[in-house]
Amino acid sequence: MSQSESIQDTLPAWMPALQKQGGPRFLQVADALQQAVESGALKSGDRLPPQRWLAAKLQVDLTTITRAYDEARRRHLLEGRGARGTYVAAPKAELTPVLDLSMNTPPPPAGVDADALLKQGLAQVLMGADNTLLMNYHLAGGSDADREAAARWLAPAFGRLDKQQLVVCPGAQAAIAALILTLTKPGDVILAESLCYPGLHTAARQLGRHVLAVGTDEHGMLPELLEQACQQYHAPLLYLNPTLQNPTALTMPEVRRSAIATVIQQYRLRVIEDDPYWLLAETAPPPFATLVPEQVAYISTLSKCLMPGLRVAFVLIRDANQREHFLSALRSFALMTAPVMAALTTQWIQDGSAQQILKGVRKEARLRHNMASNILAGHDAGCHDALHIWLTLPAYWEAAQLARAAAAEGIFVTPAEDFRTGDSEVNAIRLSLGSTKERQHLQTGLQKLSRLLASPPDHIKKNI
């Protein structure tokens, strides 16, 4: 359709046919509008077709188009001009003062009405449960229904699981701290990769343990260096984040996992396998908890693959005695998962909503990753399944220096030193792609970063 004041009889070029399996129809229309604006097919000031006309052409209810236009307005794509109609709005992303790319969170799920699923899920929880119980104390570890849901959620990685071996926790950070208390004593050494999740350092430091680095290559931790560390430090505990690793976004291949598992068995190491991204990966090797099951405590949090606000993580511990010690440690600082959130998580897993959200998160993450790869062309953007990018910097930028320059532009990123365990000299930053709702806002921020990366900082320019 021409973007003139007249309306032709054909559908506008930016509006593809609606797909039966493409998710809610109003979101398909809103997504088509967003893609048209991002590609330039629709420009600021272009007039949109009347809602009744578009509803008739798409053979949908008027309320579907009304909801689509409302959603597009929520995304700052459209604006109403009274009797003159609806028009493409001027970009709003530049007016947003801060873009936080420092926190790893899943993006809004593509093609999913998350608000509707939240309302529906909570309504079902309230209808099906004793509301008094939902607002009362519960024993740590989760109900039978919660553990059954956990077993179902982990089935793609493990197949059939005994629900009694699973514990429901208030987030992965609480699980890591409780496992450190369970598996080590003050002064002990915890082995980890040279770049790893900062939350491990925080918990270990607060609990009086020491995290020491084991060297890596492009496939992850090196088995020969792990063996040397075991001989030198007699460490009781190893921390691994083997799939879409934070921060490098690398996935340890199956051959390397087998070699590491051999060392774990030989030195009787206990292992925390922190695996929040396994379900996001298109093809992930089997977890360590399938290779050395009795020595590995496996953590899978839903905060990184569904929604952070759920604050629910599942922990697989096969040894009954160790599981009881873990629950005792957990109760010392986190009595229970919030019952409403645990019940909502269980409801969503049982009715398929969680799988629907996961699929949408995976789709949106890949869309954002592809966009970032195009904008940051010439820089390694890493695996497209990850929620983040590990960006190696040109020699004229230091990570901390670039982080400060980006913050001056209203963009927060995380420099390599925040993840450093040993003396790693990697010069890189992590960019988290999911924290902003609007893809256009992310696009604007990445374009600013690209301009920063392309030019040396001022003090270097003066010496050129």
TrEMBL record:
Residues 23-91 form the HTH gntR-type domain. The keyword Transcription regulation applies. The keyword Disulfide bond does not apply. Pfam families: Aminotran_1_2, GntR. It comes from Undibacterium luofuense. GO terms for molecular function: DNA binding; DNA-binding transcription factor activity; pyridoxal phosphate binding; transaminase activity. Keywords: Aminotransferase, DNA-binding, Pyridoxal phosphate, Transcription, Transcription regulation, Transferase. InterPro entries: Aminotransferase_I/II_large (IPR004839), HTH_trans_reg/aminotransferase (IPR051446), PyrdxlP-dep_Trfase (IPR015424), PyrdxlP-dep_Trfase_major (IPR015421), PyrdxlP-dep_Trfase_small (IPR015422), Tscrpt_reg_HTH_GntR (IPR000524), WH-like_DNA-bd_sf (IPR036388), WH_DNA-bd_sf (IPR036390). The lineage of its organism: Bacteria, Pseudomonadati, Pseudomonadota, Betaproteobacteria, Burkholderiales. It comes from the Bacteria. In the C-terminal section; belongs to the class-I pyridoxal-phosphate-dependent aminotransferase family. This is PLP-dependent aminotransferase family protein.
